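Good morning,

Both structures are done.
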Amino acid sequence: MNSVDIRPFPSSSKYSSPFVVSYFGGLHLNRWKMLVRIVRILNDNILLRVYTSSELTEEIKKSFNNYHIEFCGCVVGDELYNARLKSDILLHVESDDEKNRAYTRLAISTKIPEYLISGRVVLGFGPEEVASMRILSDNNIGLVISSDKSDDAIRDAFWAAFSNVDECENMRKRAYEYAKTNFDKKLIASRFKSLMQSVCSESVEASV
């Protein structure tokens, strides 16, 4: 489910303000509120582009317009991949309200492997204990900023990370290699086939 096709490692991003930050995915589970919050905090220092198939309610449209969030609709295939390459940072968010915090606690978003293989720095914003954030922080393959922090602390954490170009480069390389090792579609299919063959062989031997 989380496997990806492996593509060549892409060239570096520009890492200059305003950073082009792109979010790909649904706006449900109050994720849209987290997008609005991080833009509000980082102000004119980022340009946020949202790629989603979700329909925008009037409330979301108004909030996006107020904070100059660029709604880009839904993209697929090469268009999707190229949109990621045109980004400096790929953003993943999870809501920090109590209900959705519990709902996403053990679920790793399918976007994470896709982000990692894109060779862009991945930024997670939300509760630091949920699975999609833990996979980034535990393996040092993305920057996670806890939404429990104050606005000033969130801003400081962002600038501390993205003012260090060398670490950004190292992080995106680690992310790419992690995706190759753990989410390669061909490798996973081969392992699964071998596992099924082994199980079938053991079953036949046991029945003889």
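Second structure follows.
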Amino acid sequence: KAQWVKPWTITTKDSDFSSELKNILDEQFHPERPNAVWCSDITYIWTIDGFVYLTSIMDLYSRKNIAWTLSKTLEVSCVIETIKKAKARRNIDKPLILHSDRGSQYVSKEYKRVTATMQCSYSKKAYPWDNACIESFHSLIKREWLNRFKIRDYDHAYRLIFEYLEAFYNTKRIHSHCDYMSPNDYEELYRRLQQDELQLAG
């Protein structure tokens, strides 16, 4: 039986510690509002100059990529920077779950500090389906876009990712999950419906 393995395998913490990492999300991939559930993951991208690593955070409500960082290493600082970007861009005054796998970056002290106001949720050991939505997104950006190019180096990869995410994926690419709207349009519809409800209530 084939086993799913990430191209870069990071050892997880010992079993006693791992038992504390709860799977709060439990494959509930359809939250009722934006900023209820975010998920994060890291994927590798091949370049002629060597691998680079894309850290992404997705809002599960709209499947929007709300923050991303491209780095040349797998240091925890890349994840922390991405979370800070997401927090700066989004309104998180309501309870928020942040789901990830058990990679060392996501169980570090720095990660716990920057996510102190969130509920951290973790995939079960060796079970990638718990984080399927963002795994699927990372497959998508490679299949639809990055695999078309012979990527030279970090700068070339950055430009390609920026172009896909900012000029296409969030703004134009339709999703069946979003009733065949783009993530931005789907969130805008949610905002308009909330405003209408407030006006009716008033």
